[in-house]
């Protein structure tokens, strides 16, 4: 006499479906538990996101192992044993991926980058950090473009974190044509900077002559501001400095 229900419970694909469902449920519960635990311990969002990514990779790996064990009709322990023999080969093939994972761990361990920080990397890309996961760090530029940077590249080539300190000095370089009164130019630039609301009162703005190019003096206006307002202040100072000098009949390049 046919026993469809009993046959169903002995069907390996049905068992696989149940196993995958259990993996999914435990994965969701584990992520929720981990996230709450890290939030209670006041860990930053970067670490939370990284741990969740690692747990997701582990869950996917376990699901694949279950599927392979059912397809080959063998125990998962044997599959893991066979997989262990191929780790060395995979490490060579996936060395770049492994380097990115280690780079991500190094980024987190150094605690030099947090979400919202404005950084630049060796190739000149500048943006605000929106995500750090196992493989990549994502930054968002001022044009709203998202750029994925391999973690290994960040650690090997270095980066600049403009928001690591609370305040930052802005340098605006101006080329003043030969024959102009340098002292007058210096005074105009300092007064322009002092009138700008984003400029901090201490340290006070200053101007230095940093070189001579083709007979023209190269001046650098230096002003301090909040690290999160550096980009905006730089644009403002260039525009207002040019207008102030032009209004006094002083020509700049």
Description:
A hairpin with a 2-residue loop joins strand 7 (206-213) and strand 8. The protein has 3 domains: 4-74; 84-162, SH3 type barrels (Roll), CATH 2.30.30.60; 167-248, 2-Layer Sandwich (Alpha-Beta Plaits), CATH 3.30.70. The strands form 2 sheets. Strands 4-3-2-1-5 form a 5-stranded antiparallel beta sheet. A 3-stranded antiparallel beta sheet has the order 6-8-7, covered by helices on one side. The radius of gyration is 29 Å and the shape is elongated. The protein has helices spanning 4-9, 12-40, 45-71, 76-85, 87-93, 95-110, 151-157, 182-195, 230-247; strands at residues 118-121, 126-132, 136-140, 146-150, 159-161, 167-176, 206-213, 216-226. The N and C termini lie far apart (96 Å). The protein is α+β, with helices and mostly antiparallel strands. Helix 8 (182-195) crosses helix 9. The chain is built from 9 helices and 8 strands.
Instruction: Work out the radius of gyration.
Output: 29 Å
Strand order of the largest sheet: 4-3-2-1-5
Structural class: alpha+beta
Summed up, the domain count is: 3
Low-confidence stretches: 5-9
Cα-to-Cα separation, first versus last residue: 96 Å
Work out the helix count: 9
Outline, from the CA principal axes? elongated
Features:
Alpha-Beta Plaits, alpha+beta, five-stranded antiparallel beta sheet
List the helices and strands and how they pair.
Elements lengths: L3 H6 L2 H29 L4 H27 L4 H10 L1 H7 L1 H16 L7 E4 L4 E7 L3 E5 L5 E5 H7 L1 E3 L5 E10 L5 H14 L10 E8 L2 E11 L3 H18 L6
Antiparallel strand pairs: 1-2, 1-5, 2-3, 3-4, 6-8, 7-8
């Amino acid at each position: 006499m046919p026993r469809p229900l009993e046959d169903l419970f002995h069907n390996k694909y049905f068992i696989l479906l149940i196993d995958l469902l259990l993996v999914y449920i435990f994965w969701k519960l584990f992520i929720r538990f981990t996230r709450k635990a890290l939030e209670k311990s006041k860990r930053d969002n970067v670490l939370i996101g990284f741990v969740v990514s690692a747990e997701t990779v582990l869950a996917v790996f376990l699901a694949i192992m279950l599927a392979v064990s059912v397809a080959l009709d063998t125990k998962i322990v044997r599959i893991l044993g066979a997989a262990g023999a191929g780790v060395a080969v995979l490490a060579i093939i996936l060395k770049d991926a492994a380097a990115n994972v280690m780079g991500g761990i190094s980024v987190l361990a150094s605690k030099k980058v947090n979400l919202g920080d404005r950084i630049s990397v060796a190739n000149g890309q500048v943006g605000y950090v929106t995500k750090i996961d196992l493989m990549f760090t994502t930054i968002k530029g001022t044009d709203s473009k998202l750029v994925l940077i391999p973690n290994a590249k960040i650690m090997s080539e270095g980066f600049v974190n403009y928001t690591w300190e609370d305040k930052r000095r802005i340098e605006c370089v101006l080329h003043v044509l030969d024959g102009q009164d340098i002292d007058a130019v210096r005074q105009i630039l300092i007064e322009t900077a002092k009138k700008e609301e984003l400029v901090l009162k201490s340290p006070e703005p200053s101007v230095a002559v940093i070189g001579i190019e083709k007979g023209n003096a190269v001046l650098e206006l230096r002003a301090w501001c909040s690290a999160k307002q550096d980009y905006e202040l730089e644009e403002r100072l260039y525009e207002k400095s040019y207008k102030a000098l032009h209004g006094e009949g002083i020509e700049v390049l």
